[in-house]
Amino acid sequence: MLSRALFIVALFAWLPAQANVLVTDLSKDQISIRGDFTGETLLLFGAIDPGPHGPVDGVVVVLRGPGENVVLREKRKKMGIWINQAAYPMGPLPGFLATVSSAPLSALIPDDKRRALGIGTDKLEAFLLDGEASDTEQKAALEAFVRLKHADRLYAENPQAVEIIDERLFRAEISLPAGMPVGRYVTDFYAFKNGRVVGYRTGELPVDIVGAGHILGEAAHKQSLLYGLSGVALAVFMGWGVAVIFRRR
């Protein structure tokens, strides 16, 4: 994370002396999740100025969800039963991560720069928050986490999702699943030429729960004790009501 932050600072220091070749925008300025939300598609688009460097080699767009700390548990089968073994508290890791590009990432940017920018799930980095674990164990736990996120459609990569039109315009679509976490999302747009970043834009995309779900969500997070007691009281009341109805019959 620190290396990425330092790289971004250096990037901004370098870009003003050059021309930032990208102008970007999104089809939505926020995502509102209601009770009937089943997912949607976000359109990301922009323009490329080929004047300063000539036509770019490619464009990469990254949509990164809010960070979270997770506990990754290793399971092993003993006597026919799956049992939790070692636990690896790690973080921060994005709850959602989509990376789309106009060409394979390996063809656009060297591995060291890609790792510094955190582009691609294979370059994700997380820190062990507690305990001890070897590099091999941490790598295996992180790879398992990425596989689970891919299975839930919360992590995705597509090297052909960015379409460049006449070397000046580009567009891409990213699928937002129903189970996406709420919070502040960050959009990063990169233009590459000869392995170098020649254009960069960033922005934010708020994702919020609205309606009754918002009220319940706020209560669950900010007043968890009261929310839990209310749930227990509601369950007791409903159980008592059903018992009364059946007694009358």
From TrEMBL:
The source's superkingdom equals: Bacteria
Would you indicate the residue range of the signal peptide? 1-19
Q: Which InterPro entries match?
A: CHP02186-rel_TM (IPR019088)
Report TM segments.
Answer: 225-246
Q: Which UniProt keywords apply?
A: Membrane, Signal, Transmembrane, Transmembrane helix
Q: What is this protein called?
A: TIGR02186 family protein
**What species was this sequence derived from?**
PS1 clade bacterium
- Organism taxonomic ancestry: Bacteria, Pseudomonadati, Pseudomonadota, Alphaproteobacteria, PS1 clade
